[in-house]
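User: Hi! I'm a student and our assignment asks us to look at how structure tokens line up with a sequence. Could you show me two examples?

Assistant: Happy to help. In each example below, the sequence comes first and the structure tokens follow. Example one:
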Amino acid sequence: MVHFLRPLGYRIGLLGKTMIAPADSFPFDYLGGKGDALDFKAAQKYIEKDKSEPFCLVVASHQPHGPWDQGDASLYDPKKLSLPPYIVDTPETREERARYLAEVTYLDGEVGRVMKMLEESGQSKNTLFLFLSEQGSSFPGGKYNLYDVGIRAAAIARWPGKIKAGSESDALASYVDIVPTFVEAAGGKPIQGLDGRSFLNVLTGKTNQHRDYVFAVATSLGVKGVTHPYGIRCVRDERFKYIWNLNSENIFPCSRAAHSHTSSWVQMAKTNVVARERLDRFLHRPEVELYDLKNDPWEQKNIASDPKHRDTLARLRKELDSWMREQGDLGVQTELDAGKRLKKYIQEHGEN
């Protein structure tokens, strides 16, 4: 972002979360904000610093991220919350869900403050405002996974006169497409060699198509407390998703999130058949998963062994294999190499 927007005359600031390294690869103007509270005064000062100079400001909130202790959880009655069908319904889960939603509401307030700040600066009509969520929550099946609740990000864009208010699009796009989109919006030329490509025409309503496929990866090595590899790769088109669990012989390791609901699932599974089935599905996975996202948006029915979908599975597998070769991804070996690099990094820099 910095390297491609700065030559176009932009200053690029970053406020908030900074889990990036090495620093020289991310030469933002750092505005602070390592704790939960964002310094909105610093953001306002950066926006209004020089109105003759275009700017790009990344406001990276810490919410919603565990521990879920921001916002007003009393706004959500745990007993009245609806839960997704893959969740084990325990009182602890409902309490955690309420706290999670409180942080989402807190985040919504932060987004509102930034929008108001932009309005008051007088630059909102000439600014592309883009909100993106990160990976899904750390409830089982979300973060650390490649199910849609773990990788599908919310995207809300506002650009008066350019983007039609209230318009929507189902076009497939990926995080790698963000920088090329910003470059085009800033008047720059397409950059050769990037994995991403601009979806500005989707935002402006000129098309409702962007990608035929999107890809995602997950690795467990590096997650605190994880001792064995569990690599996952996936590809999806508009309707189907193929997931390849590289280490399906292992128990899925990212099951001890720092939330009380995790242990409550284990306890209920001892006496409740439904809870046991849901917990087992989370911990023990087949090598291949295929889902019809149109008819099964929660990805509950694995149709990988269904003869009717043999061609679909073969097509998606071919696309994923091709993409992995392009990326230099060797699958299991890449996962193991990641573990070696992590160990070396900890030896040199310590663990945080």
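Example two works the same way, sequence first and then tokens:
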Amino acid sequence: MTPETLFSLQGKTALVTGGATGIGRMAAEALVRAGARVLIASRKADACIAVAEKLNALNAPGQADGFGGDVATKEGIEALASEVQNRTDQLDILMNNAGVSWGAPMGQFPHEAWEKIMSVNVAGLFDLTQKLLPMLMKSGSVDDPARVINVGSVMGEVPMGDGAYSYSASKAAVLHLTKIMAKEFSPYHITVNALAPGPFVSRMTAFATGDEETREKVGKSVPLGRVGREEDIAGCMLFLCGRGGSYVTGAVIPVSGGINVVTAGNIFAEAL
């Protein structure tokens, strides 16, 4: 078994939601470089088309197609699923990456921040997966299952409100849904796993990662001393989507630089 065999995605077709920026953009490039045809969808069709053009200019083994798609509403999800079906009769990989956040301090956090965040991050993820399940079932086999990758967050693993209460709760729901889906989809030869990222450069985290000085400050609070890089996401995607990940389901990969295992201080340190 060679590295090329383990991680090649030649002949595969993937959909990455929210694929024009941030972690979705990183994942899309990794998939294209591994040989997959990658459908990139987000609310901003122009941005998706532009990213697809840039990825196609890499002369990588795969290719990209960009178009608009919104997982915030029932109608948007139905339209996105129909567009995918119009563009391909094959779907091997689904990356549920589209997400939104809302920040406000305790005592000022608005009620509407719950409906909006849960609708996109949880209901949208679930409903789109449900709509595309027949295509994934068609692609999966015992030797080479179809793959679903849900993007959660380290904030869904550890009790970090940090002003993003509904976001943290939504990502905890994503991680739990991942395990439920993994259990229920196994008979159909579909693996379902999740990423739980820490801080990465993205539009959502631009306030904290938008410039080098701020990134360094944020990185110092991460146990491994830095914010995430493109290769951190790429490595996870190639493992989970390639032959080497075909026996893994229900896993949550903590791509967070160790934030997921930060605990209280050593309470007996002073005595020792």
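Here is something you could point out in your write-up. The first helix runs from residue 3 to 7.
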